Amino acid sequence: MSIRGGRAPVLLMLATLLAGAQQAPQNGWEIGPFSRPASGNPVIVPNPASLFQDPIRNAPVHWEALHTFNPAAAVRNGKVVLLYRAEDNTGAMQIGMHTSRLGLAESSDGIHFARRAAPVFYPAEDSQEAREWPGGVEDPRIVEAEDGTYVLTYTQWNRKTYSVGIATSPDLEHWVKHGPAFLDAQGGKYAHLRYKSAGIVTVLRDGRLIAAHIGGRYWMYWGEGAIHLATSEDLIHWIPVEDARGEAIEVLRPRPGHFDSAFPETGPPPLLTSRGIVLIYNGKNAGPGGDPKLPPNTYAAGEALFDAQNPARLLARTENPVLEPTMPYEKTGQYAAGTTFAEGLVYFHSHWFLYYGCADSLVAVVTAPQTAPTQPESHKLQAVCFRHRSHD
Questions:
Q1: Which neighbouring-strand residues pair with 205?
Q2: Residue 217 phi/psi, 5° resolution?
Q3: Residue ranges of the chain whose pLDDT lies below 50
Q4: What's the CA gap between 252 and 268, in Å, rounded?
Q5: Most buried one in 16, 124, 363, 392, CB count within 10 A?
Q6: 288 contact partners, CB below 8 Å, separation of at least 6
């Protein structure tokens, strides 16, 4: 099959792209099991005292007064760095009607964080203002390019429509916005698509999660309701992988009777391992037809395994969630049904640290020792230099 629009072909056959789930080659491919630390959770909570001079309002705002949740994570200079979504106390008191900005917090142990007084990423009078104001910038994921550049995928929300935005930074503090991921794909075919939740495939190298080059390109799992796939040559401009009808393929769909029966969506950046690509994803439990062990509308996290030779081919997924709301701070908050919404994954001090949003209100963490093989053995990765390109 070829990607439309004159780009280099994706080395996948259509029949393989649409293959159903297969049995995993062997057990033990999952990351985990995860456990909550004995103390320290939640790791980020709202701070009504924090003030920020908003460049659009031209007035001070309490930028993290109401909720702090859904974080991205990276390891930099021997510390875990979180970019977490923070909602101010403006707008109507309902989900999505406050302004979101991204705060930065650092930790030497992955649990106790010191945070900056002001956000590091936010709506401003720039090329993306119309897409990001007044709703804000939401739900980030971070990957690191081979040259150390950080690539951010996030939701642009103007309270009318939303899309995945791309931004880059040398230090996680100073950012360049590049606009929607699919803006130019297929001659503008996806320019008006509503889409969110995007994670770029990574590989563990020298303790860092680096964007993985597979088959001559980068890969990104994206979407909610069903999970899709896209490719890129530069980590900024992305093209959805399509089927023979010219529609974006669905590589993971809802499962009746399971925790992901209503609304699966991409979690943190996936990990390329010797067993395949491991995707931690978030699933919503349906009311009728969902998992009877979970309350309706609850969000829990599961894991899926994709073929590293064919990133569209689903091999297996966990029967039950690997993380679900059990603690009071996970079951009570802005989102009344409860969530453990995973978005940030790092390898730190020989353990996996998974950061997640709790009921759209707080940030918490679970950890796991490294058990599953993480270093790919048979997949040749090509390291290429990151190229800066902008829509501005």
A1: 208
A2: -155, 170
A3: 1-26, 378-392
A4: 15
A5: 363
A6: none
pTM assigned to the model: 0.90
Cα–Cα distance for residue pair 374/303, rounded to 1 Å: 15
Cβ neighbors of 194 (< 8 A, separation 6 or more) are 161, 162, 163
Nearest to 139 by CA among 360, 379, 392, 371: 360
Looking at residue 5, its amino acid is G
- Give the pLDDT confidence of 158-214 residue by residue, as tens digits: 999 999 999 999 999 999 999 999 999 999 999 999 999 999 999 999 889 999 999
Look at residues 229, 206, 220 and name the one whose alpha carbon lies nearest to residue 146.
206
Report d(CA 356, CA 42) in Å as an integer.
10
Given the DSSP bridges, would you call strands 202-205 and 208-211 parallel, antiparallel or unpaired?
antiparallel
CA 42 distance to own-chain centroid: 20
Residues 6+ apart with CB under 8 A from 231: 3, 10, 217, 218, 219, 220, 238, 239, 241
* Strand 202-205 versus strand 198-200 pairing type: unpaired
CA 306, CA 313: separation in Å to the nearest integer? 5
Q: What's 11's DSSP letter?
A: S
Q: Determine the pLDDT at residue 93.
A: 87
Length of the chain: 392
pLDDT tens profile 132-160? 999 999 999 999 999 999 999 999 999 99
Which residues have CB under 8 Å from 255's CB, separation 6+? Answer: 261
What does 112-134 look like in DSSP terms, one character per residue? S-EE-SS-SB---SSTTHHHHTT
Q: Are 317 and 270 in contact (CB under 8 A)?
A: no
H-run or E-run covering 328 = helix 328-331
- Give the domain ranges of the chain: 47-369
Q: Which CATH number fits domain 47-369: 2.115.10.20, 3.40.1350.10, 3.40.50.920, 3.20.20.150?
A: 2.115.10.20
Q: Nearest-CA neighbor of 64 among 49, 81, 53, 76?
A: 49
- In terms of Cβ atoms closer than 10 Å to its own Cβ (0-12, 13-18, 19+), residue 45 is middle
Q: How far apart are CA 362 and CA 155, in angstroms?
A: 18
Beta bridge partners of 271: 202, 278
- Residues 388, 343, 112, 349: is their CA dihedral positive or negative? negative
Computed on alpha carbons and rounded to an integer, the radius of gyration of the chain in Å comes to: 19
